[in-house]
Amino acid sequence: MADILVGEGYRDAGYEFICIDDCWMERQRDEQGRLTADAKRFPSGIKHLADYVRQPHVSHYSAPERSIAMTVFVCAFVFS
Questions:
Q1: What range does the domain containing 46 cover?
Q2: Four-CA torsion 55, 6, 20, 37, nearest 10 degrees
Q3: 77 is a domain residue
Q4: Is 43 within a domain?
Q5: Residue 43: which region, alpha, beta or left (left: phi > 0; alpha: psi -120 to 50)?
Q6: In a domain, 28, yes or no
Q7: What gap in Å lies between CA 53 and CA 61, rounded to an integer?
Q8: Is residue 79, in this structure, part of any structural domain at all?
Q9: pTM of the model
Q10: Which stretches within the chain are classed as H helix?
């Protein structure tokens, strides 16, 4: 999505955020009780994805000094 946002001119038009709202986490927390990224959807994890989105090379289509922000939302619900 970051590559498309930049490559098709959306970032230059003012779109600067990628929001991951739902379906990003595993159904179970890790051993320390922390939420973890779904290993199938995000095999390298959310941090790796966020680092990629913020890298200047994502901006190679236009002004490299302008980066993209990424937000991950956590919904308050319980799987049953």
A1: 2-72
A2: -40
A3: no
A4: yes
A5: alpha
A6: yes
A7: 14
A8: no
A9: 0.61
A10: 2-7, 45-54
* Cβ atoms of 13 and 66 closer than 8 Å: no
Q: What is the pLDDT along the chain (80 residues), one digit of tens a residue?
A: 778 887 888 888 888 778 887 788 898 999 999 888 899 988 998 888 888 877 765 544 445 555 667 666 665 454 44
Q: How many separate domains does the chain show?
A: 1
Residues sharing a CB contact under 8 Å with residue 57, sequence separation 6 or more, in sequence order: none
Instruction: Tell me the CA distances in angstroms from 26 to 4, 9, 12, 15, 61, one per residue in order.
Output: 26, 33, 34, 29, 34
Find how far residue 16's CA is from the centre of its chain. 12
Determine the Cα–Cα distance for residues 77 and 48; give it in Å rounded to an integer: 25
Bridge partners (DSSP) listed for residue 72: 20
Residue 63's contacts (CB-CB under 8 Å, 6 or more residues apart) are 12
The pair of three-digit structure tokens given for residue 59, joined into one six-digit string: 């901006």
